[in-house]
Write a structure and sequence with these properties.
A hairpin with a 2-residue loop joins strand 15 (617-619) and strand 16 (622-624). Helix 6 (116-129) crosses helix 7, helix 16 (386-399) crosses helix 17 (404-410) and helix 21 runs antiparallel to helix 23. The radius of gyration is 28 Å and the shape is globular. The strands form 6 sheets. It has a 7-stranded parallel sheet. The protein is built from 27 helices and 24 strands. The chain folds into 5 domains: 3-102 and 193-281, Rossmann fold; 112-184, Arc Repressor Mutant, subunit A, CATH 1.10.10; 318-381 and 545-643, P-loop containing nucleotide triphosphate hydrolases (Rossmann fold); 383-540, PCRA, domain 4 (Orthogonal Bundle), CATH 1.10.486.10; 673-718. The chain is an alpha/beta fold. The protein binds adenosine-5'-triphosphate (ATP) and magnesium ion. Magnesium ion binds next to helix 3.
Length: 719
């Protein structure tokens, strides 16, 4: 058999890893050293040289998108399909197992997945029923508590406490929440894993079945597995199963969600004769970018330690840009992206990364203004938008009448005269009868517990759902969605909203229908098409297929950038308190995690990296004047240069801030100030040149023009 294609394009250490005969292999290596590539080639090696059937392979990736790409690459190497191989995220794989064995896992076949928004809704309801005051007991905190327990594999009964109020109250909430999920046939993200873990642990027959089936397990980004994920992996792979694990301790960034770097050491202990291979050559970034990343991460104490070098040129220096505020930061980024595109590069080759989701709004505004196409990756996901969720909730309820979360969401959306009181009546009945809201609602109607008008409205709603299913369920997915949007009057409700928003909602609903049209049912052979689609909507990062192929700038948080790479990268908001985040600054462990996040961010860049910080930023509703992030200071001076808009390189020192004031006609102007011009509209002052009557002001306008104007004649208005 010719193994050339599989070993081609790999260095010595990578080849050793790919073709290793060892049953337990750990590839521990820094960013961009080819870990993911090794994983792909190893799968191809196992199939073609070790003659494993794709059916016997299970691989865990960090995102659904990564899973799709990985499958595609393996198939390319093999020259044939590997569709029998299980590959996906922990959640995706657990979901697949639960669907196949729902009854054994004590779930209805129609169970639905709760995303974190829906989960919070259910928790709120449960806490209200328990008469817990939500100022004293914030539901979000309870949500955090429950998820944390699940991540550690704990049910309410497993939680030990000595009667402290916090834990005992939250345990009760957890217990009641579980009851609510049971009645509703609902499974949250954490539950997917915990439930499959328990299923395999308690059902020897199933465990034997899967342990016999899976002969090789591979995991990418292993450093971010949490307790339950690790336990899950151990259950699915018995001692005869080959295991290949790749990871980088310096990129562990999910400690706040229970991920444990120690799992790497644990792996070494738990499996016999683990062979460790280190990869040291980086193929992704220029010498400069790599040196910067190495310099930053060197400030962490808790490291396994490794060396990373590249044959690549030094490349361009890292550009620093001191913006006056977040608007100006966005303006700078969008104008650089425009230049990049005008030079013949693709938008899709550039990414804007940020620490906190809220930063995307201003960036989006400027990209829109400049008509630069963009896509938010893993942010507010397509399937999380209100109109999309409303429509999906109708469908979920049609397919699973037990789904209380969906019921709550749509029972009075659009408004049909079922106010809080009526809904409360339904909830009370559900509690009294120990049943779900759907059943309770029928009882309320039959017993005429509501006013005649409300009773009539509720009956109409129940009939709508019942008939909707009967009439639509055999139609193509797309039609089911369109008919649901019409029958529910959702479209009519959105149409009443004003302007752009209504338009955007309409477009999103059209997009939902087309996502359904393009949805590949084959990924979930064991499900009905709509159930598969609804599950996909809950699990996917919202990359509808139509969007994937467009040439768009990628916007994402630093957390979601893991594993990805882009020729041009901007990291916005490199400021103390924002990044490192305020909540993480006082504890050494958390600060080290922030630094690993900076390492992840910097190492996403292949050719060119911009780091931006603002001298003034509106944060949490207040104007702040942040200091430059320590992570910028940790990059050696010779690797970075300070840049200015439109003029090229300025002196490589940090600007001391905008302090220069100029008075004209009694109006005071400052650097960074927002101004209005009768012709060019609003803009920001970037610079002053000259003095007195001859002062020239340099303004960058929102329309995209940048002008030098004589201040005395410019008719500028201070905003
Ligand atoms: N031997 C090689 N020759 C040429 N290019 C390579 C080689 N190994 C890896 N690459 C390329 O280097 C880049 C980084 O590889 P890869 O994404 O697998 O690294 P990684 O270690 O998984 O990074 P991260 O830690 O960020 O996930 C990719 O573009 C990959 O195709
Ligand atoms: Mg990788």
């Amino acid at each position: 058999m010719d193994v050339t294609p599989i070993l081609d394009g790999l260095n010595k250490a990578q080849r050793e890893a790919v073709s290793s005969p060892d049953a337990a292999l750990l590839v521990l290596a820094g960013a961009g050293s080819g870990k993911t590539r090794v994983l792909v080639h190893r799968i191809a090696w196992l199939i073609s040289v070790e003659q494993l059937s794709p059916h016997c392979i299970i691989a865990v990736t960090f995102t659904n998108k990564a899973a799709q790409e990985m499958r595609g690459r393996v198939e390319n190497l093999l020259g044939h399909s590997a569709s029998a191989m299980w590959i996906g995220t922990f959640h995706g794989l657990a979901h697949r197992l639960l669907r196949a064995h729902a009854r054994d896992a004590n779930l209805p076949d129609t169970f639905q997945i709760l995303d974190s928004d829906d989960q919070l809704r259910v928790i709120k309801r449960v806490m209200k029923e328990m008469n817990l005051d939500d100022t004293e007991w914030p539901p979000k905190q309870a949500q955090w508590f429950i998820n944390k327990q699940k991540d550690e594999g704990k049910r309410p009964k497993d939680i030990k406490h000595q009667g402290d109020l916090f834990t005992s109250v939250h345990c009760k909430v957890y217990f009641q929440y579980e009851e609510a999920c049971k009645i509703g046939g609902l499974v949250d993200f954490g539950e997917l894993l915990l439930r499959t873990y328990e299923l395999l642990r308690d059902n020897q027959h199933l465990r034997d079945h899967y342990q016999q089936r899976f002969q090789h397990l591979l995991v990418d980004e292993f450093q971010d597995t949490n307790g339950i994920q690790y336990a899950w992996l151990k259950l699915i792979s018995n001692k005869d199963c080959g295991v290949t694990i790749v990871g980088d301790d310096d990129q562990s960034i999910y400690g706040w969600r229970g991920a444990k770097i120690e799992n790497i050491q644990r792996f070494d202990r738990d499996y016999a004769d683990v062979k460790t291979i280190r990869l040291e050559q980086n193929y992704r970034s220029t010498g400069t970018i790599l040196k910067a990343a190495n310099a930053v991460i060197a400030n962490n104490q808790e490291r396994m330690g490794k060396n990373l070098w590249t044959e690549d040129d030094e490349g361009e220096p890292i550009s620093l840009y001191a913006a006056f505020n977040e608007q100006e930061e966005a303006r700078f980024i969008s104008s650089r992206i425009n230049e990049w595109h005008e030079d013949g590069n693709a938008f899709a080759d550039c990414a804007i990364l940020y620490r906190s989701n809220a930063q995307s709004r201003v960036l989006e505004e400027y990209l829109l203004q400049r008509q630069i196409p963009y896509r938010i990756y893993g942010g507010l996901k397509f399937f999380e938008r209100a109109e999309v969720k409303d429509t999906l909730a109708y469908l979920r309820l049609m397919y699973n009448h037990q789904d209380d979360a969906a019921f709550e969401r749509v029972v009075n959306t659009p408004p049909r005269g079922l106010g809080q009181k009526s809904v409360e009546k339904i909830r009370e009945t559900a509690r009294a009868e120990q049943t779900n809201l759907w059943q309770a609602a029928w009882k309320v109607v039959e017993d005429k517990q509501l006013s005649p008008k409300a009773n009539g409205a509720l009956l109409m709603f129940l009939e709508l759902i019942k008939q909707g299913y009967q009439e639509f369920h055999e139609l193509p997915l797309e039609e089911q969605i369109q008919l649901t949007i019409e029958a529910s009057n959702l479209m009519e409700m959105y149409a009443k909203e004003k302007g752009e928003k209504a338009l955007a909602r309409k477009e999103n609903l059209a997009e939902l229908a087309s996502a359904a049209r393009e949805f590949d049912v084959d990924d979930y052979p064991e499900l009905s098409p709509m159930t598969a689609f609804l599950a996909h909507a809950s699990l996917e990062a919202g990359d509808t297929q139509a969007e994937q192929y467009e040439d768009c700038v990628q916007l994402m948080t630093l957390h979601s950038a893991k594993g990805l790479e882009f020729p041009l990268v901007f990291i916005a908001g490199m400021e103390e308190k924002l990044f490192p985040h305020m909540m993480s600054m006082d504890e050494p462990d958390k600060l080290e995690e922030e630094r690993r996040l900076a390492y992840v961010g910097i190492t996403r860049a292949m050719k060119k990296l911009y780091l931006l910080y603002a001298e003034k930023r509106r944060l949490w509703g207040k104007d702040t004047y942040p200091a430059v992030s320590r992570f910028i200071r940790e990059i050696p001076a010779q690797l970075k240069e300070e840049v200015r808009l439109n003029s090229q390189i300025a002196t490589p020192t940090f600007s001391s801030g905008a302090t220069q004031d100029v008075v004209n006609d009694g109006i005071e102007f400052k650097l960074g100030q927002m101004v209005n011009h009768p012709k060019w509209g609003s803009g920001v002052i970037l610079n002053f040149e000259g003095e007195g009557d001859r002062t020239v002001v340099h303004v960058s306008f929102d329309c995209g023009e940048s002008k030098r104007l004589m201040l005395a004649y410019a008719r500028l208005e201070a905003l």
